[in-house]
Design brief:
By secondary structure, the protein is α+β, with helices and mostly antiparallel strands. 36% of the residues lie in helices and 11% in strands. Bound molecules: iron/sulfur cluster (SF4) and FE2/S2 (inorganic) cluster (FES).
Length: 258
């Protein structure tokens, strides 16, 4: 297969970026979009040109490292599919494919298609954990969790932190990501000790990072490769309101973690 690939090139964070068009040939239908970029990079390297910088790690949809806007859609046109799992057979032979980085102020471009998503790490560090000493594995059924609740928590825990929800949102809101991370703990007994502190701190950190507010566009849910539901955002709002009512040390939390 043969493609015209229109790629965003930007030498560094402060450099002026622009689209450059390359022609690639000999692409197999079963190759992923990232493998197509690998092939293009080999050609560029042979020509002595700077290869296109992009992120990837697992290349099997589990790490959340990859993430590009392909033909205007975060992770490309296939539903519930990461960029690394997007196969070239889903594009027409001879087509022009436009590839650009996730665009959002809190995700500054480092180079070409690579963006800095450390804002997500700082949100997680603000409260996305449980602080119990886990010790050795408890006996089965010693901590009772109803199956439907465990499944809901598992659905939320499927978030891979890729940031497509931010890139797809007209407000650059991180609400789907943050709500999934809050929900995965809020539903389970192990998440209860820090339940209020967690949601207050994570939401405060999300705001400090400059992400926009959710105004229910639901573009995040459509772009999410893991099918995370916006039901999580509703739960985050409930959790936040509840925590404000029951967590007496609110003022202290607002002053901490800056
Ligand atoms: S909610 Fe979905 S789109 Fe957002 S970071 Fe998690 S997996 Fe990616
Ligand atoms: S490279 Fe890990 S999810 Fe795509």
């Amino acid at each position: 297969m043969k493609f015209n690939v229109k790629v965003w090139r930007q030498a560094g964070p402060n450099a002026k970026g622009e689209f450059k068009t390359y022609s690639v040939d000999g692409i197999l239908p079963e190759m992923s979009l990232l493998e197509m970029l690998d092939a293009l990079n080999e050609t560029l390297a042979k020509r002595g040109e700077d290869p296109i910088a992009f992120d990837s790690d697992c290349r099997e949809g589990i790490c959340g490292t990859c993430g590009l806007v392909v033909n205007g859609m975060a992770h490309g046109p296939r539903l519930k599919c990461t960029t690394c799992e997007l196969r070239m057979r889903h594009f027409e032979d001879g087509a022009t494919i436009t590839i650009e980085p996730f665009r959002a102020k809190p995700f500054p471009i480092i180079k070409d298609l690579v963006v800095d998503r450390s804002a997500f790490d700082r949100i997680m560090a603000a409260g996305g954990y449980i602080s119990v000493n886990t010790g050795s594995a408890p006996d089965a059924n010693s901590v009772l969790v109803p199956k439907d609740v465990a499944e809901k928590a598992m659905d939320s825990a499927a978030c891979i932190g890729c940031g497509a929800c931010v890139a797809a949102c007209p407000n650059a809101s991180a609400s789907l990501f943050v709500s999934a991370k809050i929900t995965q703990f809020a539903l389970l007994p192990q998440g209860q000790p820090e339940r209020e502190r967690r949601v207050l701190r994570m939401v405060d950190q999300m705001d400090r990072e400059g992400f926009g507010n959710c105004s229910n566009h639901a573009e995040c849910e459509a772009a999410c490769p893991k099918g995370i539901s916006i039901e999580n955002i509703a739960r985050m709002r409930r959790e936040y309101m509840r925590a404000q009512l029951v967590y007496e040390e609110r003022a202290e939390v607002a002053g901490a973690g800056g």
